[in-house]
Amino acid sequence: MSPRIKVAPSLLSADFSSLAKDIKRVEKAGADMLHVDIMDGHFVPNITIGPLIVKYVRKVTKLPLDVHLMIENPKKYINAFLSAGSDMITAHIEVVSIKEIKAMAADLKAQGVKFGIALNPSTPLSRIKPVLKFVDFVLIMSVNPGFSGQVFIPSVLIKIRELRKIFKKDIAVDGGINALTGKKVRNAGANILAAGSYIFGAKNTKKAIDSLR
Ligand code: DX5
Ligand code: ZN
């Protein structure tokens, strides 16, 4: 049986001048968690938010916070994001060693926080195979990380399918997800769908979220 489909609205597309209101909106519309994109201007060309804002997001919602670290040195900041109230933390395979992953996995497990490994569209699946046993989920990027509103890269579907054959836990997909691409990634075996512009740009938030299940 395939795992339940979960929808993770990405706050990157929310209106930060009324963030609490936007969070309530997706919460009411049935979001399963909130996807929070952390960018440092080094690993990716963009800069977004840090632990301070995550702490305030934590105050206004009970939804699990799925914190996607697109930063060069995740190990250095992981404790700050834990104290801020993260429930799930994802680091990128492109910037962490297997040794660091092992240590982070043990650390997060001890604190009851789920740990995920992310990989960019151009990073082959073989890079994460040695660490699959240490992680709770894999986040497959379907755009080059850095910005919301980009177009889904269809070649990642093969990666999702291949991963599903060997990995029974959660597979998340992030980037360019809408009703159409959502269906494709679900069929390929993904079960957590992160979506920013599609959900926050929709007239009917509930309909948009439902269409991804
Ligand atoms: C991209 C981020 C994504 C982004 C998704 O670097 O990691 O989470 O917010 O936005 P959409 O769904 O608009 O592609
Ligand atoms: Zn993301």
Automatic annotation (TrEMBL):
Metabolic or biological pathway: Carbohydrate degradation
Reactions catalysed: D-ribulose 5-phosphate = D-xylulose 5-phosphate
Active site: 37, 174
Binding-site list for substrate: 10, 68, 146-149, 174-176, 196-197
A Pfam family per the record: Ribul_P_3_epim
EC number in record: 5.1.3.1
Keyword line: Carbohydrate metabolism, Cobalt, Isomerase, Manganese, Metal-binding, Zinc
Annotated GO CC locations: cytoplasm
GO molecular function terms attached to this record: D-ribulose-phosphate 3-epimerase activity; metal ion binding
Broad enzyme group: isomerase
Family, per entry: Belongs to the ribulose-phosphate 3-epimerase family.
Family annotation (HAMAP family): RPE
UniProt-recorded name of the protein: Ribulose-phosphate 3-epimerase
Organism for this UniProt entry: Candidatus Sherwoodlollariibacterium unditelluris
